[in-house]
Design goal:
5 helices; Rossmann fold; binds magnesium ion; 5 strands
């Protein structure tokens, strides 16, 4: 399963990629904002996206809304990984089209559970 990790913080990307490795997901690419992520997602196949919310150029919520309108990648499973932790934030993200939501900081097991839940719900992967 090929995963795209989207976060403007290089440290956070490194942490998430290390945790994915612990969970057995070794095929990972990274992008540092929503716009770069969309370009990447349109250029080659991915199975799963983990995205931050607050990022320069294009935030994660805008990125997900555009992704859901883009044929070919509109079904991609997306988990938002963010410090934004109010109920209103979660609802807004779900409305934008994310499949699940992880609040930073988190443990590898938290991340694994959310990914598993999305996959179990039958999100389409390649
Ligand atoms: Mg950020």
């Amino acid at each position: 399963m090929k995963i795209l990790v989207v976060d403007d913080s290089p440290t956070m990307r490194r942490i998430i990629i290390a945790q994915l490795g612990q969970l057995g997901y070794g095929e990972v690419e990274e992008a540092d904002n929503g716009q770069a992520a969309l370009e990447r997602l349109k250029s080659r196949p991915f199975d799963f996206v983990l995205t931050d919310w607050n990022m320069p150029f294009m935030d994660g919520r805008s990125m997900v809304m555009e992704l859901r309108q883009t044929p070919g990648i509109d079904q991609l499973p997306v988990v938002m990984v963010t410090t934004r932790n109010t109920k209103a934030d979660v609802i807004e993200a779900l409305k934008a089209g994310v499949n699940n939501y992880v609040v930073k900081p988190f443990k590898p097991s938290d991340l694994g559970k959310k990914i598993d839940a999305v996959l179990a719900a039958g999100a389409k992967t390649n």
